[in-house]
Amino acid sequence: MDFAGFVSLEGGALWKLLLAPVLAGMVGLEREWHGRAAGLRTHVLVCLGSTILIIAARSAGEAFAVDSLDARLVLDPNRIAAGIVTGIGFLGAGAILRTGDLIRGLTTAACVWFVAALGIVIGNGLYVLAVVSTLLVLLVLIVFDVVEQKIPSLSYRSLSVRVALSDGEAFQAWCSSRLVSTGVRIQDVLRQVDNAEGFIELIFRIRARGIVPGKDLTKEISEQPGVQQVRWEQD
């Protein structure tokens, strides 16, 4: 087969195989720049794999429709696309890491899912859609990242304090007032009393915009009369 024949093979398979790594590589480079484990090579390989599967499915579907004597039998390439979207979720889940209260990798997992969909679009010959969607994703990753850093996020945390039973009421009033003075909103206060040990555990469930001065508050709270233990938890 000559070069011209290969170019026209499967509705322009060569152009599809060349476009897939270019567009997916643009997304992968952005992830690589941010030091993510799923970087350039992962994104390109996922997109290429999706593209090849769609090209093969369309080719098999066309050949089957021609060769089959039974017109009722149809090989639907959309099932391959559905399988790609479902299966890529396992790879995306592997990019998500949780260390304590910190969760990383959600954006990278979304990018892996996107390049898989991008391969499906390229494999179906929707080149304009592929280019425009890639540019939109790069806009979200680059421009929105700057915007996101300027917006203080809303966080939900719990402050657990173990205090002597005799000081419980006074401490709860003081601590509630102190938390409100820092700009946080107290959503609920839970009380767990242990009469045998002689202490009460107060759990303040709070909502705050931006960074909660946890270190300074912990030191101040721990210095109050009757306080035995102070602990912060992420809700």
Please, could you describe this protein's structure?
By secondary structure, this protein is of the alpha+beta class. It has 2 domains: 3-150, no CATH class; 154-234, ACT domain (Alpha-Beta Plaits). 58% of the residues lie in helices and 20% in strands. The chain contains 8 helices and 6 strands, in the order H-H-H-H-E-E-H-H-E-H-E-E-H-E. The chain has helices at 3-8, 13-33, 40-67, 78-93, 106-123, 127-150, 168-181, 214-222; strands at residues 97-99, 102-104, 154-164, 185-194, 199-209, 227-234. A 4-stranded antiparallel β-sheet has the order 4-5-3-6, covered by helices on one side. Strands 1-2 form a two-stranded antiparallel sheet. Helix 3 (40-67) packs antiparallel against helix 4 (78-93). The longest helix is centred in the first third of the chain and has 28 residues, at 40-67. It is elongated. The N and C termini lie far apart (62 Å). The model has no long low-confidence stretch (mean pLDDT 79).
Helix content: 55-70%
Major sheet description: 4 strands, antiparallel
Strand content: 15-25%
Q: Widest sheet: strand order?
A: 4-5-3-6
Question: What structural class is derived from the secondary structure elements?
Answer: alpha+beta
Which sequence of SSEs, written as H and E, runs from N to C? Answer: HHHHEEHHEHEEHE
Shape: elongated
The residue ranges in which pLDDT falls below 50 over 5 or more consecutive positions are: none
Distance between the termini: 62 Å
The radius of gyration computed from the alpha-carbon positions, rounded to a whole number of angstroms, is 28 Å
Number of domains: 2
| Average residue pLDDT | 79
Q: How many beta-strand segments?
A: 6
Question: Given the structure, what is the number of helices?
Answer: 8
